[in-house]
Amino acid sequence: MNSLKELFKNKDKNLCSVFFTAGFPQLNDTASIIKNLEVNKVDFIEVGLPYSDPLADGPTIQHSSEVALNNGINLDIIFDQLKSIKGDVKTPLVLMGYLNQIIKYGEDRFCEQCVACGIETVILPDLPMLEYENHYKALFATHGISNVFLITPQTSVERIRKIDGLTDAFIYVVASASITGAKGEISQGQIEYFERIKAMNLKSTLIVGFGISNKTTFNTVCEYVNGAIIGSAFIRFLESEGVEKIDEFVEQIIS
Amino acid sequence: MKIKVCGMRDCENITELVGLTPDYIGFIFYDKSKRFVADFPQVEIPSSIKKAGVFVNETIEEVVLKASKYTLNAIQLHGNESADYCKELRSKICHSAHDAESIGNKNEMLNQVQHDKIEIIKAFAIDQSFDFKQTNSYESHCDLFLFDTKGKEFGGNGLKYDWSVLKKYKGQTPFLLSGGINENDVEVIKEFKHNKFAGVDLNSGFEDAPSEKNIKKLKEFKDKLMQSKYQANKNGYYGQFGGAFIPELLYPNVKELEDNYLKIMESEEFQKEFKYLLKDYVGRPTPLYLAKRLSEKYGAHIYLKREDLNHTGAHKVNNTIGQILIAKHLGKKRIIAETGAGQHGVATATVCALMNLECVVFMGEKDIVRQAPNVARMKMLGAKVVPATSGSKTLKDATNEAIRDWIGNPEDTYYLIGSVVGPHPYPDMVARLQSVISKEIRAQLLEQTGQEKPDTVIACVGGGSNAAGAFYHFLDDEDVELIAVEASGLGVYSGESAATSVLGEVGVLHGSKTILMQDQYGQVIEPYSLSAGLDYPGIGPLHAFLNESKRAVFMNATDQEALDAAYELTKIEGIIPALETAHALAVLPKIDFKKNQVVVVNLSGRGDKDLETYIKNLKA
After folding, report:
1. Where are the domains of chain A?
2. Domains of chain B (ranges, CATH numbers)
3. What are phi and psi of B345, to 5 degrees?
4. Is B207 annotated as catalytic?
5. pLDDT confidence band for B115 (50 / 70 / 90)
6. Which pLDDT does position A239 carry in this prediction?
7. pTM for the whole structure
8. How far is CA B508 from CA A53, A57, A94, B195, B329, in A?
9. S-S: B125 plus which of A250, B150, B349, B534, CB 3.0-4.6 Å?
10. Which of chain B's residues have a Cβ under 8 Å away from the Cβ of A55?
11. Which CATH architecture has domain A13-254?
12. Confidence check: pLDDT of B470 > 60
C-alpha cells in the first residue's frame, strides 16, 4: 500500500498538508523545508514544480516559481534533492506541476524518476479527466502512480462521482472558483458547498485547498472534510520569515 | 463533395432525408424498378435540394412532361439514350419552362425561374472494358455523368466495380460515383482522386427495404465523408494536436461553450446577424485586388485579400463580431480578452462598445508601453486595460492573466480569445469565424479569373487566425499550395526569433497540445519579433497539424525582410501593410514562381499602428 493510503487509513480528520515551491526561497531549500515540515507533524507535503506559465496559480505561487526558476531550479535538480532525503523522510510527498513539464521531460522518464524518489502521487491541474483516461491512466498505473483530480463548486455531481471512481489518492476540493491564494475567510456559500460534497459519501479522502491561510480557515473546513492544504500563506511566510521559523508557521495552524 | 440519394418514394422517409441536406434526391420513373415512383410523393423539399428524376429509355415528351409537372431540377438518363437524345431533351426542357410561363402556372413558373436550368445527368454502365471515348459526344449536352456498375438490369444493380478504371476518363464533365456504395466505403471514397470527381450516388447500400433508406446510416456516412482531416474532431483534435488541457476550474466555462458554439453558429438568427454586421459594420466583402506592379515584379499574378480594409484595420474583427454574438447568446455580461499588439484588444473593445458589454483587456506591461496608441483606442472605446505584470510581461502572460480572471468569474464572463489557440472549441470556432476570408477569395477569384482556386495562398502566422481563415476553404484542395510565414526576428537561430515551426517542440500551451518554444524542462521560452502580433511562443493546433502533415509549407521572414517588404508594397502599390502582414509579403522574393501562377496574399492588416516603427527604421 502506498504511504498516502496508509496515512488516510490511520487518520481521517484534520489532515494538514503544506505546499511549497521547490527551489524557493533558495535553490537548495527543498530538503530542509521537507524535513522541517515533517518534524512539525505535517501529514503530507506537496512539492510544487516551478513552471513558467502556472495557469491555475495566483500571484504568490507564480512569484515563488519565478524566483525558483531564476535560482536555477529544474526537474533534474528537484529529483536529486528528493533522492537525497528518500531514506530519512517518512512523510508522504506529492508532486504538483503542469503537464507540459512532464511531456517535455518524457512521460516514462518522469514516472521512473518519481518511483526512484518514492513519489506515488501527482497533481497536474491542467490534465483533465478525458485526457487522463485516454493518455495517462495506463502509464501511471504501470508505475504505481496515483493522480489527484480537482473539483470546484461548479463541478457537477455526475463528474464528481466519476472523479471519485478514477482516483485512488484523494480529491482536491478547490474551496472557491478562483486561482490559488485569494480570499481569506470561509463564506456561508463555501460551507454549503462542503456540506454538499460531504453528503455525497464519496469513497475518496477529501482535502480542501485554495484560500486556506490560518488556523480559523483550517479548522472550519476540517469540520466538513478530511483535511486541508495550505499553500500561498506558507510561501508568503517563507519569503518573509525564512526556512528556520517553519515550526512557528505550522504551530499557528495545527497547534 | 455532392451527395445524391436515389430511389426515394415514402413521404416520411423523404422528410427525414431532407434533414440531412443531400444535394440531390432522386426519384425513379422506370416502372421495372423496385423503387418505381407511380405517384409522386407530396412532400416539401427545400429549393436548396435538387429533385432528380431517373428515366430509362423514356420518350422525350414524357420526360419533359414529368420534369414540368414535378418541377424537377435534374433529369438522369439511365438507359441507352444517345447524345442526340440529350441534345434534343435539353432544347425541349428549356422550352418547357417557357410553356409553363405561358400557361400561367405561377408556382411552376417561379420554381423554374429559381433554377437557371434543368441539369441533365447521363449514366454510363462501367466495366473493365468500358471505352470512355463513348462519353465524348455527350459532353456538350450533359451537366453531369454518373458512372454506375455494368449489370444485367437498367437503373442500378447495387454492385460495385473497380473504380480505378475511372483513371481512363479524361473528359471535362464532372461525374458521380455510383453502384452499391455502402457505409464501409467512406475511407476509399475519401482517398479517391480524380479531378472531375464530383460526388456519390447512394441507394441500395443504405436501405432497410427497397426504397426505404436508413437515415441513421446515411447520416453517419455523410458526417464521416464530410469530415475533413483538417477539421477538429469531436474532442478538438487535429491529428495529435489540440484538445482541451484545462484545469477543472475552467471546465464548466469551456464545456458550456463547447456544447453550444456549433448550435449557435449554425442557427439562422446568428447567421443573419453575423452576415449583417460583417457587411454593414465591418465593410465586407473585402476586395480581392490584383496587385499589378507587385505581380510584374515577381512574375506571378499576385492578388491581395484586403483584410486591412476591415473596420478596425485588420482581420481580427471577423472573429470578435462572431464571438460577441456567441457571448450574447450565452447570456454573458462581461467580456475579457488578451492582446499582444493591441489589435485584438481594439477589435474586442469595439464590439463590446457596439453591444454595450463590459470589456476588460489584459495586456503585457511591456506591450502597453510599445503599443500606446492602441491602449488609448481601447480606453476611448470604454475598455479597461489591465497590465499583465507577471513573467515576461507580454502576450503569453496577458493570456495567463485572462485565463485566471475567467477562472475567478466563471458565470457572467466570456473569454474572447483572439486567435486559433486555446482549449477546444476555440481553435475550431475562431477558424470557422475567420473562414469568411477564404470563402470570399474563392468567389472573387472565380468572378475575376473563372477559376475559384489559386495556386498558392500566403499568410503570416503568430497564433494563426488570419492564416486559418485564408486557408480554411482550400484545406481539402490539396492542389492549392498553402504557405504559412512565421517571424524569425533577428534570424531563426539567433536566439531572438518566433519561428515556432522550426524551434518549437510538442507540448501544451494555453490549453491545447501544439508545438511551442520551450527549454529542455518544458519552460516556455519568450519569443522575439519586431512585430508584436507574431511573438507568440506557440501556433494554433491546426497549424501544428498542417506543419506536421506537410499540408502547409512553413517559411519565415526576419524583421528586416518584413520591413523591406512593407516599404516595397507602400512604394509600388500605395498600401502600407501591418508589420505582421509584411512578413507574408516578405517571402515573395524567396519563391520561384511559375509563369501565370495565381497567388493570393492575405493582407491581414493595415500599417497605421506600425508607423512609428516604419519611420524609425527608414531613417536608420
Report:
1. 13-254
2. 2-226 (3.20.20.70), 242-277+313-428 (3.40.50.1100), 283-309+434-619 (3.40.50.1100)
3. -60, -45
4. no
5. very low
6. 94
7. 0.81
8. 11, 17, 22, 39, 30
9. B150
10. 247, 400, 403-404, 510
11. Alpha-Beta Barrel (3.20)
12. yes
